[in-house]
Amino acid sequence: MQEIAEQIQNTTLQIVALQEIRWKVYGHIKKKDYSLYYSCNPDTTGQFGTGFLIKKEIEKNILGLEPYNERLSKLRIKGKYHNLSLICAHAPTEDSENTVKEQFFEELQRIQDRIPKLDATVLLGDMNAKIGLEDAYSSVTEKYSLHKESNGNGELICEYAAANNLCIMSTKFNHKKSIKEHGLRQMEIHVTRQIMC
Asked: Which CATH number do you get for residue 110?
């Protein structure tokens, strides 16, 4: 964690959503320059885990972490006019069993349904999805996808976004050519890979 914390100290990022923490249970670790809120598997280490790394200067605005499981956690932040609910997600891979994917999206929807209506919602994390350029999803996507066609997980996340009046931000902006060709290397890009608001 220290290495990631040092990396964000050199950026303007104040909150980073993390996946694959791989610890046990959930908790809060407070350090000099940052805090880590995390939600992991209650029984074993080494599997999944989500969380948020938060710079010290905004710690006073944290209303709380709601750990759900090793794939989902929610952080609520006090805002000036509206509070902000951040969901950190690590979706099952494309080749996972359909029942596992269905359970994940059902739990994600339960979390979404419990968010106060006046909160702004942002979904961050690794959705293991390819978002395409299909017309069917034009209400939640734009023209700057890295892919021509959505995979199964891409379709699921587009349907989730449409059902919850969210937009897939990674398709709203043109990506640098180097990122398209060589993958996501910069931390800021990696963190915002699948943001919805």
From this structure: 3.60.10
